[in-house]
Amino acid sequence: MEEQNTNKRPDEGAATPSQIPPAPAPEPAYMPPPPMPSYAAMAPQTNAWAIVSLVSSILSWVGLFGLGGIVGVIAGVIARNQIRENPATQTGDGIALAGIILGAVNIALTCIGLLCVMAIFFGAFTVPFWGSR
């Protein structure tokens, strides 16, 4: 059996820097295309206050006399301010305007109606006898 040379230096037999082949150039990283934006993200949405304004103003004509009109006018003004601040992301200016107009007309007619009812009611008690002279 042959004896192995145990007196070798640890760096003997190792490759020298000039013998190491150069590393291959790194391949460019794959960059996937950017995702397409969805239509829902780009489309402006109708302002919720505008919808509240129109619905409450319509309800003021059905049975919430006066109160629905007040809510409609206030919500419509809030909606129009928010839409003017963010015109790219919110729509519904016409809906808010319709709510304001319907609410304001309802408030005005409710006030006139209340004044007429009060005039008739209180007027009936100011004249002691209607038909007698």
Verbal overview:
This protein has four helices and two strands. It has 133 residues and is mainly alpha-helical. It has a domain at 47-126. The mean pLDDT is 82. The chain starts with 38 loop residues before the first helix and ends in a 7-residue tail after the last helix. Helix 3 (67-85) runs antiparallel to helix 4 (93-126). Strands 1-2 form a two-stranded parallel ribbon.
Question: Brief description of this entry?
Answer:
The chain is mainly alpha-helical and 133 residues long.
Summary tags:
single chain; two-stranded parallel sheet; mainly alpha; 133 residues
Any idea what the shape is? rod-shaped
Cα radius of gyration in angstroms: 42 Å
Largest beta sheet: strand ordering = 1-2
Number of strands: 2
N-to-C series of helices and strands: HEHHEH
- Determine the mean pLDDT: 82
Helix content: 40-55%
Largest sheet: 2 strands, parallel
Low-pLDDT residue intervals, each spanning 5 or more residues: none
- Percent of residues in β-strands: under 5%
- By DSSP (H or I, 4+ residues per run), the number of helices equals 4
Structural class: mainly alpha
Distance between the termini: 154 Å
